[in-house]
Specification:
mainly alpha; 15 helices
Length: 402
């Protein structure tokens, strides 16, 4: 944040606005336009004085993005899909990370620890481009819910797995008991931290009908839950997800006033737009500076492995639910597979790699390459895939989950 430059921030906002107008008219994904604009800005003499860092992504950008998505998720449909989602984001993430890690170890020659770090961080998906396409095209409710919920939980689990690997790299206990305890405390602690911040502040919000105060309290909830969890080395993503679910369901049922609810939703929609604009512009700027050609073979291998890992995480896992009430149509499976884009969290984890990982520099560069591949290739083809599969919602059945 020492790099904060107000005129430069103004320039980014202006560029983001122009890109939003252009991509809307050209019917292109907003994220693709932003990354391209970021690359162009980085190549100009002015450059990009603000660069992505772990602190910027994790502390400033990530909490509001998770919170904004979580407040849109209705509890009853989410609870109904929870068994399927739980298996997808536990067994699915393990399988996806395992495929990538094994491939990078055997074919790229990375150490098992370096390959495991990369496998876990690249398993974290970011559906921003996909959800933007959903909202523009109005896809079916259940597909929207599955994609957004799976991604949020997936990010939380990937972050937890990364924390466990950091502990192992630091020489802490790596036995099954120690790993299980670390997983349990990180997950349960994150959920508890989210509830501990959200519940009292939602109750305080119920004491006023001033929408500005209600918006302010939700901002404290979003950042406070994340920071509290991270302070105690719990999962900040799961904390903010929990807090968002509480606000979006319990809060909107009575504590937050009827006048405050649209103000809260509109505020967070704008915040998400703002932060996504900065993230993708800065990703583009960083891409322009990365020596991707030096690791082009590893990057190509990683992109293929990330797709293979995603396929293993989606199709076999969902096949287990084929004869249950939670069975998922093949069309949905294809969208979940191809819509598993990588984004900000994967980059934040890559930049947070311990210095003692031998392949650290290569992992960071390859992670940026895979993110670029997913944004350009998967992001650009996603609207076509949705139309091709006939997944547009019937007239009058919009995408809003609440």
């Amino acid at each position: 944040m020492e790099q904060l430059d107000i005129p430069f921030i103004g320039l980014l906002l202006f560029v983001a606005s122009l890109v939003a107008i252009a991509t809307h008219r050209l019917k292109l994904p907003y994220s693709v336009g932003l990354v391209t604009a970021g690359i162009a800005l980085a190549l100009l003499p002015l450059g990009l004085p603000l660069t992505l860092s772990t602190e910027l992504i994790m502390i400033v950008f990530l909490p509001p993005l998770v919170f904004e998505a979580a407040i849109q998720i209705p509890w009853k449909p989410f609870r109904r899909e929870l068994p399927l989602l739980f298996v997808l984001v536990t067994l699915g993430v393990v399988l996806a990370a395992g495929v990538v890690a094994a491939g990078m170890h055997w074919f790229a020659g990375w150490s098992w620890l370096g390959a495991a770090f990369f496998g876990v961080l690249i398993a974290a998906t970011d559906p921003v481009s996909v959800i933007a396409a959903f909202r523009a095209m109005k896809v079916e409710h259940r597909l929207h819910l599955l994609v957004e919920s799976e991604s949020l939980l997936n990010d939380g689990v990937a972050a937890v797995g990364f924390a466990v690997l950091v502990a192992i790299a630091a020489g802490q206990g790596a036995g099954p008991a120690a790993i299980s305890l670390k997983l349990l405390t990180t997950v349960v602690g994150g959920i508890a931290a989210g509830a501990a911040v959200a519940v009292p502040l939602v109750l305080i919000a119920g004491r006023t009908t001033d929408r500005l105060i209600e918006v302010t309290l939700t901002t404290l909830i979003a950042y406070g839950s994340f920071l509290l969890a991270e302070h105690f080395h719990f999962s900040g993503v799961l904390a903010t997800l929990t807090a968002g679910l509480i606000v979006g369901n319990y809060g909107f049922l009575g504590s937050i006033s009827d006048e405050g609810r649209p103000a809260v939703l509109n505020h967070w929609e704008y915040v998400a737009f703002l932060i996504n604009s900065f993230i993708f512009l800065l990703i583009g700027g960083r891409e322009a500076q990365m020596p991707i050609l030096a690791v082009i073979e590893a990057a190509g291998l990683a992109a293929l492995l990330s797709l293979a890992g995603r396929a293993v995480a989606i199709y076999p896992v969902m096949a287990a639910f084929a004869k249950t009430r939670l069975r998922v149509p093949w069309r949905y499976k294809h969208v979940l597979f191809w819509g598993g884009l990588r984004g900000a969290l994967a980059l934040a984890l890559a930049l947070a790699l311990p210095a003692n990982i031998a392949e650290r520099d290569s992992i960071i560069t390859v992670a940026f390459a895979v993110v670029a591949f997913s944004i350009y290739v998967q992001g650009l083809t996603m609207p076509w895939l949705i139309r091709r599969l006939g997944l547009l919602a019937p007239r009058g059945d919009g995408e809003t989950l609440h």
